[in-house]
């Protein structure tokens, strides 16, 4: 943790130079809509989901039940709103790569950029191990399949590809990763199972994790790195669009919205044969999630950068500029337990069915207070 001299120095891996307006503008110019969207994404992890779930306690009806259901991951195939949170972070990491790595190469050279990419990835991966319990249960039970782990690995490969390949080659690589992953899951027989399958526990990705992933086992972490990198590359394409001086801002929004809708359509059509499965990060899941991500980025860019409606987004900006920090802090500081100090006991009895709503509001206030405190003092986690 450090206190940089300007906010342009502040961003960590997930909010690094992806907030700079163009490749050649001053470093202290920010595309704050990217920070705001990242904060919007983090909002749901930090308590926004509990806030929505609390509505069902107040009024157990079909609409509140449907909303609460959207705050849960699909058990297997399908897509809920909460399934967007993780890939949106990976998408935004890709957007950031265009700004940060280009600037780093221009200032320090490609070798320095590669070293920084490796350093950031390793540190973020280690944060992921710490977040998931470290080695408290022994090295044999270490957890290597968490959120920060995946972001670190996807960032590492996507950033390296960005360093050495031109956009047209990156497009080909992205398509190759998505189609290649589909081909592996669709045509390669699963040892001990037989024909290729998308079923839980019977697919190729699951088999590889069970035999080759150290520590605690997961559904498809190793093989699904392929579409996760493609997820990050799709973010890079959005970042390239935002830095393109030949395209005016309004057209950038149209391109984001149009490409997002196109990605959704392709993903939904393809899902007829290749199911949308978050645990496997199927190619259709990536296309659907990145389609929504591009649309959200376009909307945030339109509202914040073009229409200049910015005050409403300020809390999200605080959160987005210290996303990794608050994510780690929440693993150490139980905000809900502290929230009970305000609305527990007799207050809880008085509130009745409104207790969960009140607790969620208190938790979010505490979270926003922490990130606002850090923001005002220009304290950011830097990698």
Automatic annotation (TrEMBL):
The chain crosses the membrane at residues 84-105, 117-136, 142-162, 169-188, 222-242, 254-272, 284-304, 316-337, 357-375. Keywords: Membrane, Transmembrane, Transmembrane helix. This is DUF5009 domain-containing protein. It comes from Pedosphaera parvula (strain Ellin514).
């Amino acid at each position: 943790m450090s206190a940089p001299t300007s906010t342009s120095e502040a961003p960590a891996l997930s909010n690094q130079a992806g907030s700079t307006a163009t490749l050649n503008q001053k470093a202290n110019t920010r595309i704050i809509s990217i920070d705001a969207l990242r904060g919007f994404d983090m909002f749901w992890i930090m308590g926004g989901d509990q806030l929505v779930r609390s509505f069902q306690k107040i009024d157990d009806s079909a609409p509140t039940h449907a909303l609460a259901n959207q705050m849960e991951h699909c058990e297997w195939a399908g897509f809920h709103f909460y399934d967007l949170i993780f890939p949106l972070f990976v998408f935004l990491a890709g957007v950031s790569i265009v700004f940060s790595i280009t600037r780093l190469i221009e200032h320090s050279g490609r070798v320095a950029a590669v070293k920084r990419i490796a350093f950031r990835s390793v540190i973020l991966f280690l944060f992921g191990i710490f977040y998931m319990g470290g080695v408290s249960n022994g090295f044999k039970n270490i957890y290597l399949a968490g959120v920060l782990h995946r972001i670190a690995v996807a960032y590492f490969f996507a950033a390296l590809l960005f360093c050495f390949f031109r956009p047209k080659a990156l497009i080909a690589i992205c398509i190759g990763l998505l189609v290649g992953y589909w081909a592996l899951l669709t045509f390669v027989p699963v040892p001990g199972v037989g024909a290729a399958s998308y079923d839980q526990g019977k697919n190729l990705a699951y088999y590889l994790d069970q035999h080759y992933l150290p520590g605690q086992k997961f559904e498809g972490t190793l093989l699904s790195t392929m579409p996760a990198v493609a997820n990050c590359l799709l973010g890079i394409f959005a970042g390239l669009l935002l830095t393109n001086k030949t395209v005016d801002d309004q057209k950038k929004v149209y391109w984001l919205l149009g490409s997002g809708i196109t990605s959704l359509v392709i993903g939904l059509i393809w899902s007829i044969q290749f199911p949308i499965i978050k645990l496997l990060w199927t190619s259709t899941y990536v296309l659907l999630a990145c389609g929504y991500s591009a649309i959200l980025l376009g909307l945030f860019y339109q509202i914040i950068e073009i229409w200049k409606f910015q005050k409403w987004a300020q809390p999200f900006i605080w959160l987005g500029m210290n996303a990794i920090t608050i994510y780690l802090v929440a693993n150490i500081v139980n905000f809900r337990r502290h929230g009970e100090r305000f609305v527990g006991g007799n207050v809880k009895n008085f509130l009745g069915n409104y207790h969960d709503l009140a607790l969620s509001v208190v938790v979010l206030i505490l979270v926003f207070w922490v990130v606002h405190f850090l923001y005002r003092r220009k304290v950011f986690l830097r990698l």
